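In the current project phase, the collection of sequences with tokenised folds has grown. A representative record is quoted in full directly below:
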Amino acid sequence: MINSLIKGLRNTKLYFWDRLSVLRAGILGANDGIISISGIVLGATGANLDSRSLLITGISGMLAGACSMAGGEWISVSTQRDLQVETMTSQASLKAKTIDAPQLHKKDLLMPLHAAGTSFLSFIMGALIPLLAITLSTPQWRIFNTACLMGLALCLNAVFSTLGNHISIGKTIIRNVLVGFLTIIITYILGSVLSV
């Protein structure tokens, strides 16, 4: 009875950590997509690229960033999973000497592909915001529209990331927006300087 209760609690904890790694991947992926592609397309705008070149640059950056984020998340969660398997195996071998060892099941382990897939899709969803803003805006409104939508998206993502915990929403929003605007200012200036 006690063994099954402990096993149930352990499974609940593992399920929670797997969901947490997927949620974390989604939030970070969207944030990186918003900031990275805003920086890329506004840097390209600073370099006076035409609409077609902006679109190609944005799509290339979006796909490269999504693949990079997914790969990094897969490596990170795979490493956590390997450590988890090692820990569970050593605990099971110790418990086998005194009580029935709990069975290892795939459903008990972190899922690297879930986190990688979430990271990939959320990066693309975040990246589409500045990409659509810059390609659908008229030339005179590109910078303003992209910067405003980026700021709004980062605020919403910051609020979402604080749900269910005691982290300050205000501080999280300020950090997100500050990083976003510093990124687009740097890339826009760099694009402008290099285009001369």
About this structure: Residues 56 and 90 are 51 Å apart (CA to CA). Confidence is low (pLDDT under 50) at residues 1-17.
